[in-house]
Amino acid sequence: MEDVIRLLPDAIANQIAAGEVVQRPASVVKELVENAIDAQATHIQVVIKDAGKSLIQVIDDGLGMSATDARLSLERHATSKIRQAQDLFNLRTMGFRGEALASISAVAQVEIRTRRSVDDLGTIVRVDGGAFQGQQQEACLSGTTVTVKNLFYNIPARRNFLKGNSVEMRHIVDEVQRVALAHPDIHFSLYHNDTEIYDLIGGKLSSRIVGIFGKSYRQQLIPCEEESPLLRVQGYLGKPEKAKRTRGEQFFFVNQRFIKHPYLHHAVTSAFEGLIPKDSHPFYVLFLEIDPTHIDVNVHPQKTEIKFDDERGVYAVLHSALRKALSVHHVSPSLDFDVNVNFDVLPKLHTGSYAPQASQNKHFAQTFGSGVNAPRHRLPTQEDGPRAKVDWARLYQDLEKQALGQEHEGLALWPKDTQALPSLVNQLKPENQHNPPPTTTADSDTAQGPVFLLQNRYIVSPLKSGLLLVQVQAAQERLWYDQYAKRRQQPGSAPSQQILFPQDLVCGIQDYALIEEILPELEALGFDLQLFPPQTVRLKGIPADLPTNTQEQALLEGLLSQYQYNKHSLSLPRQEAVLKALARKTALSNQTPLSGLEMQALIDRLFASSNPNFAPDGSPIFVVLPLSNIDDFFKPSS
Prior knowledge:
Blueprint: H1 10-21, H2 25-38, E1 43-49, E2 55-60, H3 67-72, H4 100-106, E3 109-115, E4 122-128, E5 131-138, E6 143-149, H5 156-160, H6 165-182, E7 187-192, E8 195-200, H7 205-213, E9 221-227, E10 231-238, E11 250-254, E12 257-259, H8 262-271, E13 284-290, E14 295-296, E15 307-308, H9 311-328, H10 358-368, H11 392-405, E16 407-408, E17 411-413, H12 424-428, E18 452-454, E19 458-462, E20 466-471, H13 472-488, E21 496-506, H14 509-524, E22 528-532, E23 536-543, H15 552-569, H16 574-589, H17 596-606, E24 622-626, H18 627-632
Parallel strand pairs: 1-7, 11-13
Antiparallel strand pairs: 1-2, 2-6, 3-4, 3-6, 4-5, 7-8, 9-10, 10-13, 11-12, 14-15, 16-17, 17-18, 18-19, 19-20, 20-24, 21-23, 22-23
């Protein structure tokens, strides 16, 4: 029998290797920019066309290469970074594998122009799909220019798997952001389709952060610095109130190399515990300087994974540095002993922040009294004498007025004439609903008293069998979602309300690319947007049925944040992610207390919706607390 094992040709081997090194255009940008950094460049320009599918060009003013080095750089495992295996444990450069240029040239048309400052002429090398096309001398600028055209042109299957231009460009921007943050002293420029995206002058890290993410970040940066025998930690944290539900603005650098490390990320989130809402992520740009002998970066071809020989020690130092930075800048929580914990609590607001709710409790405290303010009608004490009497009629007179005739902030009660309104039994009966709540079974269950709004968050209704609680925001989300979903199924029917004075929003590069990606979905729902590259979005109209108190800019920004969360954390399709994001932000934008009739209308619409049991994100909308469970609270302890 003939032998069946053969050595693969170099061209095929390079194409296979490219599958790990070159996953998308952003991978090419990453490898080429890191090579420029290793070449000691002070100015790096990145030129992109068609999100890198047609052209990726990286121009640097670094050391350049000789004619021989330029030719060898395209061979596999050819590198100037290491000489022996021991060098892997003392790496100070970004690249070291010698695979990047060989892998890129195997799946694209590559041209390298390079010249050292000591040479009179430079060298031009051309490779097409891994096949060497020629080399010649020519006058060129000092440094190196690598041009990559028609990426994956010889692997159609891989090219077909690339996403749209907006998505691929967003990944490229991510890579440029990471290297620009890691090297704030280097001047970076990024151009896409002849439009300038970034022009970041070298300087301090804080200036680089502001240049990338916007001027609003200037006021939210908290410096962090700590040094120990094991490592040095420095960088910036974002203030807790700026935390977002979506990830993407968290950056770890170990010896100026960007890494992803869930264990260290946990150290950050635990340091922010109690300062940010659950499922929120703080902004941070943190640099860890450690002896290279204590780490291993030779884990994955992308070089974003790293191993420490003492992870617990690194975790402890990092956590301590973060807690110290937060406390020094008066961000850590403090106790206020003048606040009455019975009423002036700190509830979690819908915006994700924590703030005193004194305004919501003011009327309640005036009526019922509190431990801080003297009650309007107090009970007699021994100091009043034995003959002191209680004016019970007067004591409950104001309470009855408040309970039956008024609505006020934080406590909206059912009016007296609500006996004519339909009882809750008609809303809960299975025969009257398309999707009846499974928790309600008794047909004789009827409303037994006034329905009221608790803290502007829950509709509370006494029932014969117990107590019904409806989460207002979840109910509104369900109704808005149904309305938007119905509108989306009827293209061209979305009414748009034009804004009197259109607003120009200057957003980040990533947010702009995101708006560009979901623009058809937004327009189908009633948004009227006009895009001005690279970062300006003109908001001309919004869906006509949004609440009148909606802040247009805050709505759009919140919509983008929620969409990213739905898209990446929940892995939802684009259309579904947009619908759920808009439904949530619309519900959050309407925080006015509901009247009695509005509460009844909300319940009526809820139980006629597509799914009254659950909100679009799967959370329950209402619960029924049986009377037996309530009785258990008052049983004597055994």
